[in-house]
Amino acid sequence: MRKILIVGGGYAGFYTAKKLEKHLRRGEAEVTMVDPLPYMTYQPFLPEVAAGSVEPRHAVVPHRRHLRHTKVVTAKVTKVDHATKTAELTPPVGDPWTIEYDTIVMTAGAVSRTFPIPGVADQAIGLKTIEEAASIRDRMTENFVKASTMPPARSATGC
Asked: Mean pLDDT over all residues of the chain?
Protein backbone atom coordinates (compact mmCIF):
# COMPACT_ATOMS: atom_id res chain seq x y z
CA MET A 1 0.00 0.00 0.00
CA ARG A 2 1.26 3.49 -0.85
CA LYS A 3 2.42 5.57 2.17
CA ILE A 4 1.72 9.32 2.20
CA LEU A 5 3.36 11.44 4.91
CA ILE A 6 2.02 14.92 5.67
CA VAL A 7 4.41 17.08 7.71
CA GLY A 8 2.38 19.70 9.59
CA GLY A 9 -1.19 19.73 10.81
CA GLY A 10 -2.02 23.37 10.23
CA TYR A 11 -4.49 24.59 7.64
CA ALA A 12 -2.63 23.17 4.62
CA GLY A 13 -1.77 19.83 6.24
CA PHE A 14 -5.20 19.31 7.79
CA TYR A 15 -7.10 20.03 4.56
CA THR A 16 -4.65 17.93 2.53
CA ALA A 17 -5.42 14.96 4.80
CA LYS A 18 -9.16 15.74 4.70
CA LYS A 19 -9.22 15.82 0.88
CA LEU A 20 -7.14 12.63 0.63
CA GLU A 21 -9.62 10.87 2.93
CA LYS A 22 -12.44 12.01 0.64
CA HIS A 23 -10.81 11.02 -2.65
CA LEU A 24 -8.79 7.89 -1.85
CA ARG A 25 -10.50 4.52 -1.88
CA ARG A 26 -10.15 2.36 1.22
CA GLY A 27 -6.84 0.49 1.08
CA GLU A 28 -5.46 2.68 -1.72
CA ALA A 29 -2.99 4.53 0.54
CA GLU A 30 -1.99 4.91 4.17
CA VAL A 31 -2.00 8.59 5.14
CA THR A 32 0.01 9.77 8.17
CA MET A 33 0.00 13.35 9.41
CA VAL A 34 2.68 14.50 11.89
CA ASP A 35 2.41 17.68 13.96
CA PRO A 36 3.59 18.64 17.45
CA LEU A 37 0.06 19.81 18.30
CA PRO A 38 -3.03 17.57 18.27
CA TYR A 39 -5.17 20.28 16.67
CA MET A 40 -5.35 22.87 13.89
CA THR A 41 -5.79 26.50 14.91
CA TYR A 42 -8.10 28.87 13.04
CA GLN A 43 -5.67 31.79 13.19
CA PRO A 44 -8.21 34.45 12.09
CA PHE A 45 -10.02 33.83 15.41
CA LEU A 46 -6.95 34.51 17.57
CA PRO A 47 -7.66 38.24 18.08
CA GLU A 48 -11.16 37.32 19.30
CA VAL A 49 -9.66 34.76 21.68
CA ALA A 50 -7.25 37.41 22.98
CA ALA A 51 -10.15 39.83 23.43
CA GLY A 52 -12.20 37.21 25.27
CA SER A 53 -15.12 37.19 22.83
CA VAL A 54 -14.33 33.65 21.58
CA GLU A 55 -13.30 30.77 23.83
CA PRO A 56 -10.00 29.09 22.89
CA ARG A 57 -11.72 25.72 22.33
CA HIS A 58 -13.85 27.29 19.59
CA ALA A 59 -10.77 28.36 17.59
CA VAL A 60 -9.22 24.89 17.24
CA VAL A 61 -10.10 21.73 15.32
CA PRO A 62 -8.93 18.46 16.93
CA HIS A 63 -7.10 16.35 14.32
CA ARG A 64 -8.28 12.96 15.54
CA ARG A 65 -11.93 13.97 15.75
CA HIS A 66 -12.09 15.12 12.13
CA LEU A 67 -9.57 12.84 10.41
CA ARG A 68 -11.04 9.39 10.87
CA HIS A 69 -8.89 7.51 8.32
CA THR A 70 -5.61 9.38 8.77
CA LYS A 71 -3.00 8.20 11.24
CA VAL A 72 -2.27 11.27 13.38
CA VAL A 73 1.09 11.36 15.15
CA THR A 74 1.79 14.05 17.74
CA ALA A 75 5.51 14.60 17.24
CA LYS A 76 8.02 16.75 15.38
CA VAL A 77 9.63 15.72 12.11
CA THR A 78 13.29 16.33 12.91
CA LYS A 79 14.90 14.87 9.80
CA VAL A 80 13.83 13.96 6.27
CA ASP A 81 16.01 11.82 4.00
CA HIS A 82 14.62 11.98 0.46
CA ALA A 83 17.20 9.49 -0.83
CA THR A 84 15.89 6.69 1.41
CA LYS A 85 12.36 8.16 1.68
CA THR A 86 12.43 8.14 5.47
CA ALA A 87 11.58 10.71 8.13
CA GLU A 88 12.66 10.84 11.75
CA LEU A 89 9.87 11.66 14.22
CA THR A 90 10.60 12.98 17.70
CA PRO A 91 7.72 12.75 20.19
CA PRO A 92 7.40 15.10 23.21
CA VAL A 93 8.36 12.15 25.45
CA GLY A 94 10.43 9.16 24.40
CA ASP A 95 12.98 8.32 21.77
CA PRO A 96 12.81 9.34 18.10
CA TRP A 97 11.86 6.75 15.49
CA THR A 98 11.94 6.54 11.70
CA ILE A 99 9.06 5.98 9.29
CA GLU A 100 9.07 5.34 5.56
CA TYR A 101 7.02 7.15 2.93
CA ASP A 102 6.37 7.03 -0.80
CA THR A 103 5.05 10.59 -1.06
CA ILE A 104 5.73 13.47 1.32
CA VAL A 105 3.75 16.69 1.65
CA MET A 106 5.65 19.45 3.47
CA THR A 107 3.25 21.89 5.18
CA ALA A 108 5.29 22.72 8.28
CA GLY A 109 4.08 26.33 8.45
CA ALA A 110 5.89 29.36 9.82
CA VAL A 111 6.99 30.93 13.08
CA SER A 112 6.26 34.37 14.51
CA ARG A 113 8.61 37.07 13.32
CA THR A 114 10.23 39.29 15.92
CA PHE A 115 11.46 42.79 15.21
CA PRO A 116 15.01 43.87 16.08
CA ILE A 117 13.79 46.10 18.92
CA PRO A 118 15.51 45.54 22.26
CA GLY A 119 13.26 43.65 24.68
CA VAL A 120 10.53 42.71 22.20
CA ALA A 121 11.65 39.09 21.81
CA ASP A 122 11.90 38.76 25.61
CA GLN A 123 8.75 40.60 26.71
CA ALA A 124 6.21 40.50 23.85
CA ILE A 125 3.71 37.73 23.24
CA GLY A 126 3.15 36.58 19.66
CA LEU A 127 -0.27 35.89 18.17
CA LYS A 128 0.34 32.69 16.17
CA THR A 129 -0.97 30.02 18.55
CA ILE A 130 -4.01 29.52 20.74
CA GLU A 131 -1.74 29.47 23.80
CA GLU A 132 -0.37 32.91 22.92
CA ALA A 133 -3.87 34.34 22.43
CA ALA A 134 -5.01 32.96 25.80
CA SER A 135 -1.86 34.35 27.43
CA ILE A 136 -2.60 37.83 26.02
CA ARG A 137 -6.16 37.59 27.35
CA ASP A 138 -4.91 36.50 30.78
CA ARG A 139 -2.34 39.31 30.92
CA MET A 140 -4.97 41.91 29.98
CA THR A 141 -7.34 40.57 32.65
CA GLU A 142 -4.56 40.69 35.29
CA ASN A 143 -3.74 44.27 34.33
CA PHE A 144 -7.40 45.34 34.58
CA VAL A 145 -7.58 43.76 38.05
CA LYS A 146 -4.41 45.62 39.10
CA ALA A 147 -5.74 48.89 37.66
CA SER A 148 -9.06 48.52 39.49
CA THR A 149 -7.28 48.50 42.87
CA MET A 150 -5.08 51.55 42.21
CA PRO A 151 -5.87 54.80 44.04
CA PRO A 152 -7.40 57.62 41.97
CA ALA A 153 -4.88 59.77 40.12
CA ARG A 154 -4.29 63.36 41.21
CA SER A 155 -4.74 66.00 38.58
CA ALA A 156 -2.01 68.48 37.64
CA THR A 157 -3.92 71.31 39.39
CA GLY A 158 -3.96 69.41 42.67
CA CYS A 159 -7.75 68.89 42.75
From this structure: 92
